[in-house]
Amino acid sequence: xxxxxxxxxxxxxxxxxxxxxxxxxxxxxxxMHVAEMDFEVAPGIRETLLKMITExxxxxxxxxxxxxxxxxxxxxxxxQWHVDPNQIKLATDVGVAAVEIFRALVKPGDKIMVNSxxxxxxxSWIPEVQAEILDxxxxxxxxWRLDLDAIDKAFASGVKVLLLCNPQNPTGTVHTRAxxxxxxxxxxxxxxxxxxxxxxxxxxxxxxEFVPFLxxxxxxxxxxxxxxxxxxxxxxxxxxxxxxVTKSDEMLHLVAKLPEAMHWRASLLGAFAMxxxxxxxxxxxxxxxxxxxxxxxxxxAELAAKLPNxxxxxxEATYLAWLDVSAMNLGDYPAVKILDKAxxxxxxxxxxxxxxxxxxxxxxxxxxxNITAAIDRISCL
Length: 381
Ligand SMILES: Cc1ncc(COP(=O)(O)O)c(C=O)c1O
Fold this sequence. Notes:
Shape: globular
Helix content: 25-40%
Radius of gyration: 20 Å
CATH architecture of the largest domain: 3-Layer(aba) Sandwich
Number of strands: 12
Number of domains: 2
Largest sheet: 7 strands, mixed
Strand content: 5-15%
Bound molecules: pyridoxal-5'-phosphate
CATH class of the largest domain: Alpha Beta
Number of helices: 15
CATH topology of the largest domain: Aspartate Aminotransferase, domain 2
């Protein structure tokens, strides 16, 4: 059944999609794993893409000032963050952008810091440049917040790059201005660079304030580079386009050294879908957030009623819930057991850090019926 807000196709229709979420498992599995939304794409994006396809406008990506202008407008309206469109550079995707920035900053054997639990691919991007991962975990006791003292010690020990996730996938933590300002001061004191992955930013729930790292004063501007895309929030990950944003001459200079190919390897359709997302379809996200807000409460209510042993919290952002299933006694590989026996696909906690074996990540960007069905299946274990 359709949601009152964002429109969600029936499950039988969703199962005809070609994306990873719908192809990785058989039709008896409810896929609640990959971070894709089941919502129909924004009408403005559909029209932009249809027009380009209809007019056979499918060549290589050339100059595209539309993206810088659209992001700059969105950031100013949404976050009172003023970005010079000339400091916005196109990239193939966020992963490629992060890896190319690493290449400019580190040599093999250097350490790059992450704060677990954190997005699966942070663990694979860093080895791509033969760097080592230094994990300074979020502090669970304080509600999965950054451990600023431990981060400062890591910078003091010589770690020169932090790959920050803001908002955090999978905990949904939105780092506060005070945290980010302190982080920036610490990074500047120790001569480190902070790469802030802000791909989940537009998915921040209304009661929380998303603060762009680069909007936290001079220290942040001097040490920070933002990598982001509209692809997560407007659900166009298959289209391949992202941006790198800087605020200071120092960081602009660094980013200028990145390979030009990062731009040309992005997709024409992805780049124009991004320009449309941040401009003409900027309001679409409000509708999506209304549905996601209902869904996060629905999921927590379902868990409380049917799986009261599972520990979780209301995410401040994103459509991902981070569940501690240790009290369910599902053995060493809970996500495998849930997939095998309950036919629900979740992401195993170990994808976000080796110590999270008793956690799973649940994607609630679907209909309430699908959420209920998944919890019903798991509660039969
Ligand atoms: C924090 C984070 N960064 C980046 C990505 C992926 O971005 P891209 O496909 O542009 O590499 C994801 C996808 O879920 C993510 O959660």
